[in-house]
Amino acid sequence: MQQESKYQIEVVAPKHRHMSNWDMFATWIGANANNGTWYVGGVLAACGLLTALKVIVASSALSYLCLSLVGFMGYKTGAATMSLIRGSFGVRGSYVPSFVNLTQYIGWTAVNTFIAATSVSYLLHDLVGWPVYGKPGGAKGLILGIIVMSILHLLSVSVGQRSVQMIERIGIILVILFVLWETVVVFQTVSMHDLLTWRAPTHLHMTAGAGMDTLAAFNLSWVTAGADFTRFTRKRSGATGMPFLGAFTGLFWFAFIGLAATISIAITSGAYDPNNSDPSTIASRLGLGVLALLVIVLTSMTANAVNLLAAGSALSNIFPRIRLRPALWAVTIIATLVTLIPLVMGSFLDAFTAFLDYIGMVLGPMISVMLVDFYWRHRQHYDVNELASSKGQYWYHHGINWIALLCWVLGVVIYLLLKQLPWIATFTGATFIDMVIIAVIYMVLMRICYPLTAKQG
């Protein structure tokens, strides 16, 4: 712990780092081998199979390069992501990105919980005859599922970071077996030729640019949790290579299965409805049975173990006096309430799309500022003691780097403007172009307003 208790941060010393390369790989493949990835793959089906696969590869590679860069920051310093972001936004200024991180990880917990609760409603239908969610009276099964999942999450986070490691080690085996099973079932139903030639109805078609932004919002969400886990690894390769390989493998595999399964159902049923992209509906229609639904519930726990730890870390950065475990309990309870929002809106797809739009426009510029500050401005070195100091170089102006906040707000505006340009909306998406623009603006403004001394550099 640092000397100034008001702004203290937790730093993991090398002797206390216990995660192996396999643990790190399992953590990140488990983070993406889940319901949300499956669902977003189904949403990308509107692009068509070939375009969707190109989007998955391009957007994921760029996003997880950022994950590796943040992962190295955690390995180098031993500090969590929201502690490290103090270096760019300022000790007090970091509360803004911490709040963004808090909201997005609570949101992702709610997304995965809702999908898992849908599986519980299907299980209750098979076991006791309750109507499934989406049918008259189906809400009671969903609400019971939300309660069950929230209790499981509370039990999980009560053990702390070790529980994440345990869940990932056990869950990854079952997840791999399940996805192999579904892969076989999908390709017994339709051929690759059928998948490649299928096209979504014109009014539901999604452009490659829209797909890039949708998946970038999904992928970049993990970047702001990168250092939270890599600070527990002993090896540099575990902090950089393993997060990239694990996250990319989990994303590609599960998104592809969600994509292929959604298209196969559209082909066999003769109708495409993106609202039916959730894993429980797909598993039920493919006849995968109760075991598949139980694995869907498990994958929710593997993903939400990461989500809740990241949300708890963000809450602890905003309110340093709150210890991590109470913070984890708090965010779990809040996430339970947020999970009920799609019931109020009447459509999970509408709530999910609105959530992706929000995180897509706020995360890109925030990550860009953070990476440029560490790798260019400070040449891969932060003084960890000064990250908790009200007198050090990261205090800026009353604890806030207004240049970083200005660039973040400007990045949100530029993102919204770029999305209006036809070529960008159709082909490239706005997210990564916005990140490059903000990186350049931040470099120029910081060179003018905060020139580094030799000691700081």
Automatic annotation (TrEMBL):
Q: What is its main location?
A: membrane
Question: Would I find Membrane among this entry's keywords?
Answer: yes
Q: Which CDD domains match?
A: SLC-NCS1sbd_CobB-like (cd11484)
Q: Give the bilayer topology.
A: Multi-pass membrane protein
What are the UniProt keywords, alphabetically?
Membrane, Transmembrane, Transmembrane helix, Transport
Name the residues that span the membrane.
Answer: 38-57, 64-85, 105-125, 137-158, 170-190, 244-267, 287-315, 327-349, 355-376, 396-418, 424-445
Cellular localisation: Membrane
Source organism superkingdom: Bacteria
Coiled-coil stretches = none
Q: Which InterPro entries match?
A: CodB (IPR030191), Pur-cyt_permease (IPR001248), Pur-cyt_permease_Fcy2/21/22 (IPR026030)
Which family is annotated? Answer: Belongs to the purine-cytosine permease (2.A.39) family.
Q: Name the PANTHER family for this protein.
A: CYTOSINE PERMEASE, CYTOSINE TRANSPORTER CODB
* Name this polypeptide is given: Cytosine permease
The beginning of the lineage is:
Bacteria, Bacillati, Bacillota, Bacilli, Lactobacillales
